[in-house]
Amino acid sequence: MQPWLAEKWTATNSNRSVRMTLRPNVKFHDGTSLDAAVLASLLPEVLRSFMGPVYSNVESIRAVDQRTIDITFRTASPLLREALEATVRKPAATVIGTGPFAVEGGSTTEMTANTDYYLGRPSLDRIHVETFPSVRSAWAEMLRDRLDMLWEVGSEALDSMKESTTVSLFTFTRHYQHVIVFNTRTPMLRSPEVRRALNLAVDRNAVVRNALRNHGVRSEGPVAPRYWALPPQSARFEYDPRRAATMLGTTQGQKSAIHFTCLVSSDSVAERIALDVKQQLAAIGVDMNVEESPRDELVRRAGNGDYEAAVTEVISGPTLLRPYLIWHSGSPVNWGVFGSATIDAALDRARDADSDDAYRKAVAQLQQSFIDDPPAIFLAWSVNTRAFSKRFDVQAEEGRDVLSTARFWKPSTAHRQASRN
Fold first, then answer.
1. What pLDDT is stored for residue 420 in this prediction?
2. CATH code for 174-382?
3. Which residues lie across from 315 on neighbouring strands?
4. What residue spans define the domains of the chain?
5. Which fold has domain 6-85?
6. Is the distance from CB of 62 to CB of 40 less than 8 angstroms?
7. Which residue spans within 42-103 are E strands per DSSP?
8. What whole-number distance in Å separates Cα of residue 37 and Cα of residue 175?
9. How far, in Å, are 180, 199, 323, 421 from residue 177 at the CA level?
10. Is the four-CA dihedral 313, 316, 317, 323 of positive or negative sign?
11. pLDDT band at 252 (very low <50, low <70, confident <90, very high)
12. pLDDT digits over 210-221, tens only?
């Protein structure tokens, strides 16, 4: 974790409490001050909304003095301390936060520099946001030099963008990953052994290469690959179609008794993923029928348990809190009631671990539980590329989205080279 609104923090009370010292002179966009008393009044609702059922582990939040606040948890779990990454803003109809740019008068298209920003005024005065009916039309405008930044460059546009002399590209791995979630309550997918075999039958490197056009990073499970508590030699699925066929009782060219329908939204990436996995499973005799469904309908059916499998993206980082909320059956964010009692128990062990060593052990056990009783096929971490006109000097930080440095952007005096972050 890195300090943001906090200048520093220390663990107290046998690591059950965090004492934070706030930065001086922090103000909301409306000019009002954010001191410890104000923060203590806002945090209960902020954390309740962000942490979901995990918030029950928060014991107390109190201001000590004008710049110091104590937060006490019922256990000393690192998962709870990491939940303090929550965004702080005022409860209001418009967005009133403390960041370097402020939304102007409730507008959805205009942001202006926050002249009172506690880390210093941004170099840019204003950001204007425009929307386009498709990514293709947006990057066409970018190549015509009519835009200064493109939020997302689709994989189909990368080649033409790379050849441009007026555009810089910044690529980063998102905290989202592509998965095929299983409804473990359906008869065909109820057996953990069947779901393990399906995982063994999928070549994730091929999915990245073919479906994602090398615009992804293979996934090994629900925990972010750079997460500090994930052991380097943690359990993972290997590509072993022969073993998968043996587990399902099939031989080469023989049909398995396993067949199921996989829902996919009307999205070119999701469709490519589904068709690639369908072909791979067919090689061991498994019939995966692909059914296209509007996104809203897919979510509705998943929430009602009216599905067998579905291609989707789930948030899985940067900490363990989001996987907890996605996969725990008691979480309101678990919109498809994914997971199982095995997964719930593993997640709860991580939540209740009371030291860094115990937490590392619990995270390793969690990874193993997703191997033993897989609720999904974890395929690949999503990779995004943002494009910027070389009229601007844009700084990047290793491993982070370039948007995190927005306050430093400024008109360029020289062209920058493309960067892969």
1. 46
2. 3.10.105.10
3. 176
4. 6-85, 174-382
5. Dipeptide-binding Protein; domain 1 (3.90.76)
6. yes
7. 58-65, 68-73, 101-103
8. 33
9. 10, 15, 11, 18
10. positive
11. low
12. 999 888 999 989
